[in-house]
Specification:
Helices cover 31% and strands 33% of the residues. The protein has 166 residues and is α+β, with helices and mostly antiparallel strands. Strand 5 and strand 6 form a beta hairpin. The structure holds copper (II) ion (CU).
Length: 166
């Protein structure tokens, strides 16, 4: 995806640069006839329309599609050195919104499956609530750990919750 965005950006920049150079050359060639000026204005209008269309089509999916209303909201508060999670069970195969914040220093809220693989993580930042939406496909016990070093008790910042079987 990054390569596609980069390629499109480079092509559009090349077209804009070419247009700019053409406009400068035309402006430097002295008086132009009304016919040439009309063609130039048409060209600028066409390029502007193409630019708007490309921008709308290429930028709509970013930064990401707005997710559906979550089936559950989980409020997570981090502190030295604990997690407070306001539920111990979340639903299966439905979007769950995690609202993560901290009462002291920055922590890293990371959720792992039973195999220890990190499924998602976000920073817990003082004075701000970070939201992560996630849909769990497998029931079981999920582990929470701090992924941002936050002091001597950092490794004790562990918790867990359950994804309910249907
Ligand atoms: Cu930590």
């Amino acid at each position: 995806m990054q390569m596609t965005v980069l390629t499109i950006s480079l092509i559009v920049m090349a077209i804009l640069a070419w247009t700019f150079i053409a406009a400068v050359r035309a402006a430097g060639s002295g008086d132009v006839s009304p016919k040439v000026e009309s063609r130039r204005n048409q060209l600028i209008a066409v390029l502007a329309v193409i630019g708007v269309i490309i921008s709308v089509v290429s930028l709509r999916p970013w930064p990401h599609a707005v997710s559906a209303a979550p089936a559950a909201v989980v409020n997570v508060s981090g502190g030295q050195w604990y997690w407070e999670i306001d539920t111990d069970t979340v639903p299966l195969r439905q979007p769950v919104a995690f609202n993560v914040h901290t009462v002291d220093v920055t922590h890293g809220f990371g959720v792992m499956n039973e195999a220890g693989q990190i499924l998602f993580q976000t920073q817990a930042i003082p004075g701000y609530v970070n939201r992560v939406d996630y849909t769990f496909d497998t029931p079981g016990t999920y582990r929470v750990a701090c992924l941002e070093y936050c002091g001597v008790g950092h490794t004790d910042m562990r918790d867990e919750f359950t994804v309910a079987a249907e």
